[in-house]
């Protein structure tokens, strides 16, 4: 029994050592986002993660087909979704990462009873997005290079694009490769790292 407890403690210490650099990196990324200095284009890790929110409302939305690149040059095709001034409730981001001591779930939550999360010029690159949506002033099939509802968020000439003046979505769920934003305000922020813990959905 004592040996088993000792092994459990050792495994958890190893997990913390593995997860600490990720925690520090996400903390630095959050600070950069708050200052509006993080570029919306960077090499992705190649690990998809979950994003969910109870609701999302925004003035301005654009979307177009894009390709995210990993450091080895491999492409990850998906949809780039740009959102202007947005309010979100009950947001969650979670990734499951294999480590030498087992699978670790890295999870970030915010909003809820603490109040809504606000963000400007949010750019999400992912494989899918589901929810119940209402669009206002929609333009579907517009050239991606001419999208103008979200400042400086547009695609390559000749690519398919769409945009809307206003959007409301409830039950937001997405599998994404990257999320960046010009100005995050995360009320009730919580970071949690656990051994094979629950993700967002």
Question: What is the topological layout?
Answer:
Layout lengths: L1 H34 L13 E21 L5 E15 L1 E9 L2 E9 L6 E20 L2 E5 L16 E21 L2 E3 L4 E6 L6
Antiparallel strand pairs: 1-2, 1-3, 1-7, 2-5, 3-4, 4-9, 5-7, 5-8, 6-7
Give a short synopsis of this structure.
With 201 residues, this protein is an alpha+beta fold. The protein contains one helix and nine strands. The longest helix is centred in the first third of the chain and has 34 residues, at 2-35.
Low-confidence blocks of residues: 1-40
Number of helices: 1
Biggest sheet, open or closed, and with what strands and sense? 9 strands, antiparallel
- Mean pLDDT across the residues is 80
| Spatial extent as radius of gyration | 18 Å
Structural class: alpha+beta
Task: Give the N-to-C terminal Cα separation.
Answer: 35 Å
Beta-strand content estimate: over 45%
Report the helical percentage. 10-25%
What characteristic shape results from the CA principal axes? globular
Task: Give the total of domains.
Answer: 1
Please state the oligomeric state of the protein chains shown: single chain
Order of helices and strands: HEEEEEEEEE
- The strand count comes to 9
What would you note in describing this structure?
The protein is of the alpha+beta class and 201 residues long. The chain has one domain. It is 17% helix and 54% strand. It has one helix and nine strands; from the N terminus they run αβββββββββ. It has one helix at 2-35, and strands at 49-69, 75-89, 91-99, 102-110, 117-136, 139-143, 160-180, 183-185, 190-195. Strands 1, 2, 3, 4, 5, 6, 7, 8 and 9 form a nine-stranded antiparallel β-sheet that branches. A hairpin with a 2-residue loop joins β3 and β4. The longest helix has 34 residues, at 2-35.
């Amino acid at each position: 029994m004592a040996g088993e407890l000792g092994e459990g403690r050792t495994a958890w210490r190893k997990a913390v050592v593995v997860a600490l650099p990720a925690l520090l990196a996400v903390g630095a990324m959050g600070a950069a986002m708050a200052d509006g200095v993080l570029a919306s284009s960077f090499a992705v890790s190649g690990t998809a993660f979950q994003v969910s929110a109870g609701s999302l409302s925004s003035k301005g939305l654009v979307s177009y087909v894009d390709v995210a690149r990993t450091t080895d040059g491999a492409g990850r095709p998906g949809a780039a979704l740009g959102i202007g001034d947005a309010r979100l409730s009950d947001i969650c981001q979670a990734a499951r990462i294999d480590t030498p001591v087992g699978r670790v779930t890295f999870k970030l939550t915010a909003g809820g009873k603490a109040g809504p999360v606000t963000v400007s010029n949010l750019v999400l690159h992912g494989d899918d997005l589901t929810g119940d949506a209402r669009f206002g002033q929609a333009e579907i099939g517009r050239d991606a290079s001419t999208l103008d509802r979200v400042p400086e968020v547009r695609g390559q000439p000749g690519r398919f694009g769409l945009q809307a003046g206003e959007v409301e979505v409830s039950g937001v769920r997405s599998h994404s490769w990257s999320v960046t934003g010009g100005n995050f305000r995360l009320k009730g922020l919580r970071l949690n790292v656990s051994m094979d813990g629950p993700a967002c959905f």
